[in-house]
Structure formats: structure tokens, C-alpha cells
Amino acid sequence: MSDSRETVVFDGFAKKYTENRPPTPADVRGGGTPRPYDAGDFSKSGLDRGQHVPATSARRPALSAKLTGRAAELWGPIREREIGAWSRVKSRLTPPPSAGETESTIIADALDDGRHRRGIAEDLVDRLAEVTHSTDLARAAERGLNISGTMVARSLSDQIRNSSDALFNAISADLRDLLDEAEDVAAALDGADSAEAAIKAGGNVPAAWGRRDGLRDRYTALAGAVHYVRRATAAGFENRAGSAPDRLGSPVTELSFASSYAVVDNALVDFGASATAAAILRGGF
Prior knowledge:
The chain is an all-alpha fold. Helices cover about 60% and strands about 0% of the residues. A two-stranded antiparallel sheet has the order 1-2. The longest helix has about 40 residues. The relative contact order is 0.19.
């Protein structure tokens, strides 16, 4: 994890991330040269506009890497289509249940019959073949499920990289709307900087004070959405046994929560946020 000195320079979600994203597997397969990238500093490619917002020194909530708002609406249908296709294929890759017999139990029964001079079952070979067939079906189903999961994970990885501009723009739009609400709250507080002061002021001030936590939670959710897109475009999705093939992969260079917070913090500067509104959203008010 990065410390409080970490900074991010970010001028427009889509433009800056696209120009500074980590090399993808497609880049490597195509012989491309990995571009300079640091999870906590986008200034290495000459995009520095001189607007550095240090990550807050206060401890901030851990981020949940999850899309929200417009970005979730944009990505949701793509994910549902791919995972839906995988689920339908998976439903056909379940072999029929075994009768509980194994080659060892069948042969053990036959030997027991032989020891007691009972007749050996005439269908002994057929029963052994059925067990072998069931085993082959189970192995084929397992291979098919792994192949289908890998293909869907790769498809989702390609599609989210192709959609990163649109997703960042969607998050940016939600952040602008959220900032407008924060500015309204900041104006309504009329200088009140504590619950006691808000109660004393009366009128709409106590209600405005009460909206702070909700705004901050939504801001944290947007930072989590940024983290999700950054991780997904850096490492794609993974196919793991026992889960749908849409789990985020682990990037070679770990992306810190602080660097994703700094992306939205710097966006507030770009949007011209007032000090009070920015403090409300970042948790410093």
C-alpha cells in the first residue's frame, strides 16, 4: 500500500488512463513495448498540468472494487451476456450422476462371489465399461467447463479494455453530479462546521449536515469503481474453479487504494470544487 505522499495527476478519466494504462497481454503478444506506468503517478508521460493533490493523511475506508451508477449500467449488460452464455453452457456440462460404483468395488464384489463359489456376474465387463465411461464424461465436462470459463474471462477482459474510455467517462459524469450535490450542501451549511453549530443555526442547516455521510459514501463508491476499472484493464478477469469467470485478476504491479482515491481527488480539482465541498466528499469535514 502507498503512503500519504502518493500523488496522482489525472486530467480526464478516459484520456489520461488510456494514454498511461499498463501494457495488456494483447500488447505483449503483438510485440509492443510496455509503456512507463506507475500505479501512483501518471505524470511520467508528460501529462502533468501542475495539479497535484496529495492523498489525504486521514485513514480512508478500504475500497470495494465494484462498479456503480452509470458505469454499472454500461457494463452490466455486457457482463450478463457473457456470464449468461457461460451459465447455459455450464448447464450442459454436468455429467449424469454416478451409481456409486467404482472399478474397485465391482471387482471386489466379483472376487467375493468367486470365493463363495457364486456365479460371477455376466455383465461384469459392461459394468466396468460403464464406470470408465462415466469417468470419461466427468473429465470431459470438467475440461469443457474450464475451456468455456477461460474463453469468457478472456472475452470480458478484452471488452472491458475496449470499454475503459466509456466507463471512465460514466464515472466522471457521476462524480460531477455528486459534486453538484456537495456544493449545494456546502452552501446550505453556511459556515457551520459541526453538528452543534448546525443545530444552533437551525433552518435547513441540520438537514444539510446530515447529508454529509451519504455523499461521502457515494464518493467512496466512485473511487471503488475507478479501482475496479483500473484493475480490470491492467489484469483482466480470471477463470477460477468454483466461481463465475468474472473475478478480477491480480495485476503485476499492485494498484493501491490510495492511488485510486487520488484519481477522484484530482478530478475534484479539475472540476473546480470548492474547498468545503471537496472536504465533505473526501471525509475531511
